[in-house]
Amino acid sequence: MFELRQGKAEAGTGAEISTCELSTRRPEDAGEVVDRTARTEFKRRLQEIGQERAFAEAANDRDKIEHLDEEAEQIGEQLRASTGKAGRSRRLGDPAEKVRKTVTAAIERSIDKLRKPLPELATHLDSFLKKGSWCSYLLETVSWDL
Known about the structure:
This protein is mainly alpha-helical. The protein has helices at residues 19-22, 36-58, 62-81, 95-114, 119-128, and strands spanning 17-18, 129-130, 134-137.
């Protein structure tokens, strides 16, 4: 069972707290999501798709164009999923990535539990809780009519 530790940042200050500080879990690293060879092959195939698409456009082959666009989109999704915001390779079992995902999921589950009994609060938290490797509450003050 996953548990979140109580945050050290004061709510409403905008101070960030690391998901590693919020988590009680420490997963192990299991290697890259997509290795260098596969990334190189994906990029090579995207270049080929570009060339094939140009020929298909010249031949007005709409089915081929659609097929190539779908393949390029699938490859693009794989490449995006395998890299972080800074373009670095994501790792399978990357401790920080696993903790980030686990903490984000725990926060989202908690907010989802509020949706029915307190929909305004759930919407507010969706808007003002920053989730990611660092979490924070982005609103300085709020007043609620209870």
